[in-house]
């Protein structure tokens, strides 16, 4: 089985601003992606989705679902992103813990097209908190189930 990798990274400096593509981001434990609108919030540090799941949504929607328009931070190339609270994944050297399913918002019908919100229901990724910070780069490997945090 081929290990999933980071396909795309996006962030926005404020809630309604367009998402900007990045090749590399710094991620702080307990805070999130430096420069992102959710940096420093309580639990919504990083959102992760799968290109494979977006392709499934595209079949339902009837058109492509561009990863940057979903407003998620990290898109992996394939695999199922864990949704159960407490599940852990590792992206590069960053350890994330699932908080909840990322529900698609009504804004998606405006940015992607009518029906996008419905097509993305249960396919919109997961909200994570950051347990161990570091750097995430496009192309980094992704462990979709990760053990306990490393003790130093």
Describe this structure in words.
It is a single chain. The chain contains three helices and eleven strands, in the order βββββαβββααβββ. With 152 residues, the protein is of the alpha+beta class. It has an eight-stranded mixed beta sheet. 37% of the residues are buried.
Radius of gyration: 14 Å
Strand order, biggest sheet?
Answer: 2-1-6-5-9-8-7-11
Helices, by number, come to: 3
Helix/strand-derived class?
Answer: alpha+beta
The span between the termini is 31 Å
Order of SSEs: EEEEEHEEEHHEEE
Shape: globular
Helix content: 10-25%
Low-confidence parts: none
Tell me how many strands there are: 11
On the 0 to 100 scale, the average pLDDT is 91
Major pleated sheet: 8 strands, mixed
Q: Beta-strand percentage?
A: 25-35%
Question: Quick gist of this model?
Answer:
The chain has 152 residues and is α+β, with helices and mostly antiparallel strands. The protein is 14% helix and 32% strand.
Helices, strands, pairings?
Blueprint: E1 6-11, E2 20-22, E3 24-28, E4 32-33, E5 46-50, H1 51-61, E6 74-76, E7 88-91, E8 94-101, H2 107-111, H3 116-120, E9 126-132, E10 134-137, E11 142-143
Parallel strand pairs: 5-6
Antiparallel strand pairs: 1-2, 1-6, 3-4, 3-10, 5-9, 7-8, 7-11, 8-9
Which labels suit this protein?
globular, 3-stranded antiparallel beta sheet, 14% helix, 152 residues, alpha+beta, 32% strand
